[in-house]
Amino acid sequence: MNSREEWGSRLGFVLAAAGSAVGLGNIWKFPYMTGQHGGGAFLLIYLALVFTIGLSVMLAEFAIGRAAQRNPIGAFATLKGKLWPVVGFMGVAAAFIILSFYSVVAGWTIAYIFKMASGSLVGSADELGKAFGSFISDPVEPIIYHALFMGITVAVVLGGVQKGIERACKILMPMLFVLLIVLIGRAITLPGAEKGLEFFLLPDLSKVTAETFNGALSQAFFSLSIGMGAMITYGSYLNKKESLGKSALWVSSLDSGVAVLAGLLILPAVFAFGFDPSAGPGLTFITLPAVFAQMPGGAFFGLLFFSLLTVAALTSAVSLMQPIIAFFSDDKGWHPKAAAVIFGVVIFLLGIPSSLSLGVWSDVHIIREKGFLDSMDYIASNILLPVGGILISLFVGWVVADKMKEEVTNKGEAPFPFMGAWLFICRFVAPVAVAWILVSGL
Ligand code: PHE
Predict the structure, then answer these.
(1) How do residues 151-204 score in pLDDT, each as one tens digit?
(2) Closest C-alpha to 55, from 259, 216, 225
(3) How far does residue 263's CA lie from ligand 1's centre (Å)?
(4) Which residue from 418, 419, 414 is spatially nearest to 401, judged by alpha carbons?
(5) Ligand 1 near 18 CB (within 6 A)
(6) 193 and 269 in contact (C-beta within 8 Å)?
(7) Closest residue (by CA) to atom 10 of ligand 1?
(8) Which of 80, 99, 257, 297 has the highest Cβ tally under 10 A?
(9) Maximum mean pLDDT: which of 72-76, 86-90, 351-355
């Protein structure tokens, strides 16, 4: 414990934290959430929440992590003790839940690499939709890919913080960015794409309801990887010289940048091909192959895209695994490698019902009308992360504010111009607004 690993540089840290944030949340979840919640109005509310509450909670997590140099549970215990480590426990529980279904969806992206390579993803938009439906409802095939993804995640975690994650993020994240831009060029020039651009970019405020806020808030927490301590853990590996405020701004901007690019790619194509924007979790997987079918070298672009998406999912999965492992190794004396293998298996098992809930177990409902996968997502994204965010804000704003002020200014050496605004958001705005959105969503 005395010689914790450290990030190689601030760029390495920012890219790794962005690697955690950018993942399926941006490219799979964001477009279908936007589609279900009315388009432009959702985007507007989403961005407003990201750059106020989201950014502040992220900075709060970085500061807690770096001040304590511990995993989320240990961090609260070191800084204050008493009941606060409960926040860390909630975070570790959220990590288990999220990773279990995340890995199932990431398994789909691996499967789509192979399907692109074998040329089996061809046909009309309608046929592509059917192909996706029959793939995810199969009782065996998606579970094999889910196992493969968890296996790769464990392997990366075993490789260590710096070598494994940092190196992958430095090269592959920029590639994903560039590829998205190339693909947008194709999507927005499809006939009929303007309707999708309009839907995404022109807010229709008459569609805003409590649901819109609730969806935007849960999406912001999920996409920024906040509310559960992943960013506390990453902050704990950061050295004392770097500016936390700038890092948080970079990570939030990169993350929402990728989400907006994904929206610009998927939604115009959805309208051009006549899909239903509120179709839900299949949206990206059905729309993209239809786009690839319309471009020269489509199979190559498709292969590259799903490969990069798998890597983006992997860097997020690793960050979900890290708080679990750090807790059991820092505080429980487990060997980190043993923890990685054992919890890899546990999370794999926990993911199986999520996968089956899209096929043979589709009439098993857990929360309201939701199946297992949707219920896991709901418990984590709509409850655990926002509640975690409220508690993290209160903790930083009221309980350890002085220590946190020191931390974000590197003991006074790096002035932080937004101190007043940040503390005001942590003390009042974030707890009240998040609680209000949560309650009105129930
Ligand atoms: N932010 C990740 C994504 O958008 C998912 C994630 C959530 C990762 C919570 C870590 C913690 O894909």
Answers:
(1) 999 988 887 655 666 777 778 888 999 999 999 999 999 999 999 999 999 999
(2) 225
(3) 17
(4) 419
(5) no
(6) yes
(7) 225
(8) 99
(9) 351-355
Ligand 1 centre from 24 Cα, in Å? 8
Dump pLDDT digits (tens) for 271-330.
999 999 999 999 999 999 999 998 999 999 999 999 999 999 999 999 999 889 988 888
Helix (H, G, I), strand (E, B) or coil at 139: coil
CA-closest residue to ligand 1 atom 9: 225
d(CA 324, CA 317): 12
Q: Please, are residues 372 and 361 in contact by the beta-carbon 8 Å criterion?
A: yes
Ligand 1 pocket test, pick from 308, 309, 316 with the greatest ligand atom count within 8 Å of Cβ, gives 316
Residues 355-379 pLDDT 10s: 999 998 988 898 888 999 999 999 9
The protein residue with its alpha carbon nearest to ligand 1, atom 6, reads 225
| pLDDT, position 284 | 94
Give the chain's domains with CATH numbers: 10-441 (1.10.4160.10)
